Amino acid sequence: GGGGAARPVPPVSPRRPVLPRPAGQGDTGTPRPRQRGAVRPRWARPAGAALAFLGGERGGGRRAPRTRPREDGEDAIILLLKRAKLSAMKGELAEAERLLHQALRRAHQDHNRQAIIYTYSMMGNVALMQGQLDNAEKLYKATMSYMLAGDTKEDDNAILEMSLKLAGIYAAQKQHKLAVAGYQFCVLTLEEKIAKQKDLSEDVLSDEEKANTQLLLGMSLDSYARYLLTINELPAAQKMYEKALQISNDVQGETHPQSVVLMNDLATVLDAQGHYEEAHTYVRKAAKLARDTQHPEEHMVLSNLAAILMHKEDFLQAKQVYKEALKQAQQKGDAASVQHIQEELAELAKRRKGSK
């Protein structure tokens, strides 16, 4: 996942943010601020258009023997792509971009279609990490055009993952109609695909491939839910979160970090609608699982639990939970959360005073 994404549309309630996710590979929703120092749980491995290419495989199947210079050309491209990937992981995005441009030039010279596709896809990710939304949009569209002009189908997971990234870009640009159309295309296409795959035997389609498609649907629902929350479409966001949580529980288990995040996010949207009891049930369970699994964002889940307790007017319990969240945030050096919790404690003191 990358950092430094463009500033997103603010959440519906700035005091009660949904746990943030970095934009980029592995999370294809609306670009959001990166969580300070936290490891972001990821939904699924990137579907990436040509991951086999970067691994040095030649795409499977038997090919005609090639002359040595062509082989050297492909190896040189793979080396450039690996160096670019490493630079991006280290946050050296200008260097990653420079290496990718070199790789793209060589791929075009060699007429290596697979390399062109993979390079465009990586360039899109780097542009997204830099907050260059217009550029990322063009690069993802170029990647998809190359893929669809070949034998890639419209419901291929790699196409759908890029479609989801495009929906996230439109959401960040406040292009509402395009964002909704993009999210709905991903969700509906994946639901249809999963229904078709359901009865296929393991020798036709592996359980792992089926699971990856389900996780991509979960990621799409989660991203769409976060967007719906930002535009205050709360009942619709709730429905998407419920479906995403069900998928995460079914495929990854309810102790998985992603399941804990989704329980917390579902509690947030229920609380925003005034469904305090139901919100409390979900967030209490999320807090317990976060503690049991040593979740990197336990302090944020606890802060959410305290806020919901405050809305339920359980002020004494809310204060205790906020203090535990504050202690953890200070230990983790999460300055933004420390400030947020201190503001909430001040608000809690005012509420307690007003209720007496």
TrEMBL record:
It is found in: Mitochondrion inner membrane. Gene3D superfamilies: Tetratricopeptide repeat domain. Its main location: mitochondrion. One of its GO terms (biological process) is mitochondrial respiratory chain complex III assembly. Residues 8-20 have a biased composition (Pro residues). The keyword RNA-binding does not apply. GO terms for cellular component: mitochondrial inner membrane. Residues 1-47 are annotated as: Disordered. Residues 33-43 have a biased composition (Basic residues). Keywords: Electron transport, Membrane, Mitochondrion, Mitochondrion inner membrane, Repeat, Respiratory chain, TPR repeat, Transit peptide, Transport. Belongs to the TTC19 family. Binds to the mature mitochondrial complex III dimer, after the incorporation of the Rieske protein UQCRFS1. Interacts with UQCRC1 and UQCRFS1. Interacts with ZFYVE26 and CHMP4B. This is Tetratricopeptide repeat protein 19, mitochondrial. It comes from Malurus cyaneus samueli.
